[in-house]
Automatic annotation (TrEMBL):
One GO MF term attached to the UniProt entry: phosphorelay sensor kinase activity
Name of protein: histidine kinase
InterPro entries the UniProt entry points to: HATPase_C_sf, HATPase_dom, His_kinase_dom, HisK_dim/P_dom, HisK_dim/P_sf, Sig_transdc_His_kin-like_C
Keywords (A to Z) from UniProt: ATP-binding, Coiled coil, Kinase, Membrane, Nucleotide-binding, Phosphoprotein, Transferase, Transmembrane, Transmembrane helix, Two-component regulatory system
Catalysed transformations (reactions): ATP + protein L-histidine = ADP + protein N-phospho-L-histidine
Coiled-coil region(s): 217-244
Residue stretches spanning the membrane: 6-31, 158-179
Span of domain Histidine kinase: 250-458
Keyword Iron in record: no
SUPFAM superfamilies tied to this protein: ATPase domain of HSP90 chaperone/DNA topoisomerase II/histidine kinase (SSF55874), Homodimeric domain of signal transducing histidine kinase (SSF47384)
Keyword Ubl conjugation tagged: no
Short name of any one Pfam family annotated for the protein: HATPase_c
């Protein structure tokens, strides 16, 4: 158990309080035991003195010594009727070192004197003064040795310490496990639910269900459950909106290109001799223009995840021809060339690859048109060790340095004024979905070349055996 945990710190505090309780119990107990010990010696000495007085002080020395030994003292002085009388006496082995008056001794002094006796292992002779019991005199004084009292105090202290230690430890353990059960365990449960929810916030099973019996903890669990419900709903709504926005952005990008093509054809309709066509052409142009503007305004949405590509074999030459035919009708200033041999077969998603090549060809065409000079765009392909490569190169002005720095980042790599850069970002994502990569081979004043690298399909062990 670590000290910096709630259980560890509570255990340390419990230990400190147990030790403090032991001290508070032991010190008064030792002081009371010493006082009772001395009072007992005074009472025994008084009884021995009264027994001697009944014999008119006529007693054998051996019997007198026996009375003193039973009382545990050396001498007994009894003051009766203002007369101080040495009743019993025996030789004192050493001088008296201290005098204690039990008649008006404060409790603090009793504790201090008890600790002093325990701390001093030497045997001393002390005088003790007290009140006789049953009004058997005015004052009684005795002298006695401290060593027997010290040993009796140690024995009593050990018994008291053992008993109080058992009671304190049992109480502390009960308190520790009770607090742990009522507080630490519910707190750990809340923490565990928070960690599980953080790992999977969309999983409704990780939302805590309030079960604490302590009101404060239950309020905390209810607040946490409410927050988790709200956060989960917000995450789901945010995810749906993000997916919707990304999907709309991609659809808008491709739809804008389609509408641009339609706008060019509609523009040619204005030269028609048919009056009905001449009247409808401006309206058609306005409608298409508004649609293009709407598409452009939706491009602020994020990118949606593309579905996995459907890898199938197909003739790349036919696909390249479709791309070229879709672009060459839009301009007369650009020549399109295909360097793909008929029957050149690759494994890829035909529709996604069409989007990639169409985006690259369109960007190249627009770059050449922006110069006002004629140019050429060539699409070629070939085999390599890992799969196939496809290049799209042009004789345009090349990409600006700023555009090359963030070429494949959405909303950052646009070259044409008003462009968003989504075309290259979408193309790079589609190629990555095939396990390949889209790279800028070169871009300078002589033109730009993009190259696609597509890997061959993965073959499992059973497939290799079949081949």
């Amino acid at each position: 158990m670590k000290v910096n945990t709630l259980s560890g710190r509570f255990l340390v505090l419990t230990t400190v309080f147990v030790v403090l309780a032991e001290v508070l119990i032991l010190l008064p107990g030792l002081a009371n035991f010493r006082e009772d010990y001395l009072q007992t010696r005074l009472e025994r000495a008084q009884i021995a003195s009264l027994a001697l007085l009944t014999t008119d002080m006529m007693i054998e020395p051996d019997l007198e010594q026996e009375l003193l030994d039973n009382a545990g003292v050396y001498n007994v002085v009894l003051r009766r009727d203002a007369v101080r009388q040495l009743v019993l006496s025996s030789p004192i082995p050493q001088p008296i070192s201290a005098t204690y008056d039990l008649r008006e001794e404060p409790f603090v002094n009793l504790v201090r004197d008890a600790l002093a006796v325990l701390a001093d292992s030497q045997n001393h002779v002390i005088r003790v003064i007290g009140d006789p019991v049953q009004k058997g005199g005015l004052v009684i004084e005795v002298t006695l040795a401290t060593q027997p009292m010290r040993l009796a105090m140690i024995e009593s202290g050990l018994r008291l310490l053992s008993l109080s230690a058992v009671v304190s430890v049992v109480t502390a353990l009960l308190l520790f496990f009770l607090v742990r059960r009522l507080m630490v365990v519910p707190i750990k449960r809340v923490v565990a639910h928070m960690a599980a929810y953080a790992a999977a916030p969309e999983d409704a099973r990780t939302i805590i269900r309030p079960e604490a019996r302590i009101e404060e903890l239950r309020v905390a669990e209810e607040a946490l459950a409410s927050m988790q419900h709200q956060l989960t709903a917000a995450l789901r709504q945010k995810e749906r909106l993000a997916q919707l926005g990304q999907a709309v952005a991609k659809i808008s990008h491709d739809l804008r290109n389609i509408l641009t093509t339609a706008q060019l054809f509609a523009d040619r309709m204005e030269g028609s001799d048919d009056p009905a066509v001449q009247r409808a052409a401006p309206k058609l142009m306005g409608s298409i223009g508004r649609a293009i503007n709407l598409c452009e305004t939706t491009l602020a949405f994020g990118r949606a995840e593309e579905p996995p590509p459907r890898l199938e074999p197909f003739d790349l030459a036919g696909l390249v021809t479709e791309v070229i035919e879709g672009e060459e009708g839009l301009t007369a200033a650009v020549d399109f060339l295909s360097d793909v041999q008929p029957g050149f077969e690759i494994h890829a998603d035909r529709e996604q690859l069409y989007r990639v090549l169409s985006n690259l060809a369109r960007n190249a065409r627009q770059a050449i048109e922006a110069t006002g000079k004629p140019g050429t765009i060539e699409i070629g392909a070939g085999d390599e060790a890992e799969g196939w490569w496809i290049r799209v190169q042009d004789t345009g002005p090349g990409l600006p340095a700023k555009a090359r720095e963030r070429l494949f980042q959405p909303f950052s790599g646009g070259v044409k004024k008003g462009g968003t850069g989504l075309g290259l970002a979408i193309s790079a994502e589609l190629v990555r979905g095939h396990g390949g990569r889209l790279e800028l081979e070169r871009s300078d004043e002589t033109g730009t070349e993009f190259r696609l690298h597509l890997p061959r399909p993965l073959l499992l062990a059973g497939d290799e055996a079949a081949v």
